[in-house]
Write a structure and sequence with these properties.
Layout lengths: L5 H28 L4 E19 L7 E17 L2 E5 L13 H7 L5 E6 L7 E2 L8 H31 L8 H28 L4 E15 L11 E13 L2 E5 L13 H7 L8 E6 L7 E2 L6 H22 L1
Antiparallel strand pairs: 1-2, 1-4, 2-3, 4-5, 6-7, 6-9, 7-8, 9-10
């Protein structure tokens, strides 16, 4: 195993550990819900609803941001001990939004009779589905194996590549820098390829008419630096628009496929991002597989910027290797 500090491996594996802990906690909730009694219920509201969701964001001073996401709003009525109650939670699993919205609405139309499972200690807590998706643990197991293979495989691979180069460079100490520059270039190239593929698919999505609700430049403070100094003021284009697809209304905040790009210059953001007139009608490219995903700008100019960075990193690696 490469001689790397333990905290390097801990940082690489931390996200996987959090996912596994969350899955284990959710499975315990499912086990408890299996003991819940059931009662007849009826769906009274079945539509799409926009909700603000708090999202963790380590790049911001506050450590979070808010996103507007689409949810299937399935409100159902049921009675426990003669008391009529309402709830809108469908599954014991967490609904993060923008996922299976039309499918859930079609599955639970208004007026449909349903079986409601409720917590006998707190009858206002209820669900319509108390099982986790089938094959969840199998998918997590495969995902864990893949992540471990990537992390440790990359560590071993980079270690051997560094040893290999150190015997062929005029200055063996530069082998680490050459590998680092090459690795950064390779990773950025993967992002560029992914963006280009996503853009190619988005250009083929069906187009509907939408309406701009908000178009402005958001200002926020970046996370503190390593020496605990306050982060810089950042600027980011924020666009909010609504549209309908298959008779279901949606709200979206992503005008482009790379809408999360921010800059320390408000002028640059205003110059190189498109401003929209509030209330204006726009063409919306909608992902037919998940209509909650949409964009106003299927083309991605950022991909070419990434390719320039790839070229710069590879050129830097070549210069260091040949010129020292």
């Amino acid at each position: 195993m490469p001689d790397l500090p333990w905290y390097v491996y801990a940082m690489l594996l931390a996200p996987l550990g959090l996912i596994l802990v969350a899955a284990a906690y959710k499975s315990l909730q499912v086990r408890a819900a299996r003991e819940w009694p059931s009662t007849p219920g009826k769906v009274v509201i079945s539509n799409a609803e926009m909700r603000k969701v708090k999202v963790m964001d380590s790049d911001r001073e506050d450590g979070h941001r808010f996103e507007e996401r689409n949810f299937a709003n399935i409100v159902y009525e049921y009675a426990v001990a003669g008391k009529k109650l309402r709830n809108n939670r469908v599954s014991i699993g967490e609904d993060l939004g923008n996922f299976e919205v039309p499918e859930t609405i079609a599955k639970y139309p208004a007026g449909m009779a349903v079986t409601v499972y409720y917590n006998p200690l707190h009858p206002n807590e209820a669900v319509l589905e108390r099982d986790l998706p089938k094959g969840l643990w199998g998918c997590l197991g495969i995902g864990t194996a893949v992540v471990l293979a990537i992390v440790f495989g990359s560590a071993f691979g980079l270690h051997h590549i560094t040893d290999f180069l150190s015997t062929r460079l005029n200055d063996p100490k530069l082998s680490v820098l050459v590998v680092a520059l090459g690795a950064f270039g390779f990773v950025i190239s993967l992002f560029a390829l992914a963006l280009q593929k996503q853009s190619s698919l988005a250009k083929k999505w069906p187009v509907v008419t939408g309406t701009i609700k908000l178009s402005d430049i958001e200002q926020y403070r970046a996370a503190p630096t390593e020496n605990h100094a306050r982060g810089q003021v950042m600027y980011q284009r924020k666009v909010n628009y609504t549209y309908s697809y298959n008779n279901i209304s949606y709200t979206n905040m992503h005008a482009s496929l790379a809408s999360n790009v921010a800059s320390t210059s408000g002028w640059l953001v205003g110059k190189f991002t498109k401003a929209y007139q509030e209330g204006a009608a726009v063409k919306v490219y909608v992902n037919p597989a998940n209509p909650a995903e949409a964009t106003l700008e299927p083309g991605i100019g950022l991909a070419w910027v990434l390719w320039l960075l790839v070229a710069a990193f590879f050129a830097g690696a070549y210069f260091v290797a040949t010129r020292g």
